[in-house]
Design goal:
GO molecular function: metal ion binding; metalloendopeptidase activity
Structural class: mainly alpha
Cofactor: Zn(2+)
Shape: globular
Strand order of the largest sheet: 1-3-2
Distance between the termini: 34 Å
Number of helices: 13
Helix content: 55-70%
Number of strands: 3
Oligomer: single chain
Radius of gyration: 18 Å
Number of domains: 1
Region (Disordered): 218-239
Protein name: Peptidase M48
Largest sheet: 3 strands, mixed
Strand content: under 5%
Family: Belongs to the peptidase M48 family.
């Protein structure tokens, strides 16, 4: 159970964090609230996101789709158990599917709640690509990029107020806009490289799976529509090269994965 700190203690912690940030000169890259607050904020945002998609009938429930989630969890758990995550045991790490074949996107809340659209799963060619994209979103949460980006966009005071149960209307806004949150290039590159590390740690997936997705999207973007994922995760060109270079360095590009379960997953959606 998460214990919420009283406001005076939060203010003291914030003051200490601000002082540390000021001394280090790296305020833009520092999360000015605790991991427990990160989890609390993620829980609130995820609950609001769930209710929104439940109301529209788009959130695939685990109880009604056990085989779908069994197949998806098989991919997710390989990535989570790669031994490379910082907050593997601290964050809840649940992945949910949103039914919309027209949207090819995925996003992460603070604290390890991941959402992926059916349109993205159906767009991908193989399980290594799915693992790569999920690894990328897991990295955004595990490296606390989502929290840092929200902090930069909305300010620490507002985020702390959400943790304390205040500003419910603003919580609705953040939850509705999270899928369109745009990260800095540094955050995107770091998520790419950690995706490689995660997939390498599985000992199973070709660890440049994310690059395969980007390459497909680039080719199709030249002739028509571009996946929404690229509008929120821009500049794939140099990132493809960086992903492949890192994967070659780690020697994990040539793995061949049986796609039977992946094909079954797509057929069930």
């Amino acid at each position: 159970m998460i214990r919420f700190l009283s406001k005076p203690w939060l203010l003291l912690s914030l003051a200490a964090s601000l002082a540390t940030s000021a001394c280090s000169g790296s305020g833009d890259g520092v999360v000015l609230f605790s991991v427990d607050d990160d989890k609390a904020l993620g829980t609130k945002v995820a609950a609001k996101t769930d209710s929104t998609y439940q109301a529209s009938g788009q959130l695939l429930q685990r109880s009604a789709n056990p085989q779908v989630y069994q197949l998806l969890d098989g991919v997710v758990n390989r990535v989570l158990n790669s031994g490379q995550l910082t907050y593997r045991n601290e964050f809840p790490w649940d992945v949910k599917i949103i039914k919309d074949d027209n949207i090819q996107n995925a996003f992460a809340t603070p604290g390890g709640h991941i959402y992926v659209f059916t349109g993205l799963i159906k767009y991908l060619d193989n399980e290594s690509q799915l693992a790569g994209v999920l690894g990328h979103e897991i990295a955004h949460a595990d490296r606390r990029h989502t929290s840092k980006q929200l902090q930069q966009q909305y300010g620490i005071s507002l985020l702390l107020s959400l943790v304390l149960g205040e500003n419910p209307n603003q919580l609705v806004t953040i939850a509705s806009e999270l899928g369109q949150l745009k990260f800095s290039r540094d955050f995107e590159r770091e998520a790419d490289l950690y995706s490689v590390k995660y997939l390498n740690g599985t000992g199973y997936y070709a660890c440049n799976g994310t690059a395969g997705f980007f390459e497909k999207a680039q080719k199709e973007g030249q002739t028509g529509g571009t996946p929404e994922f690229l509008s929120t995760h821009p500049d794939p060109g140099s990132r493809v090269e960086a992903i492949n270079t890192e994967a070659q360095t780690e020697g994990c590009t040539g793995r061949t994965v049986d796609n039977t379960n992946f094909d079954k997953l797509k057929s069930l959606l």
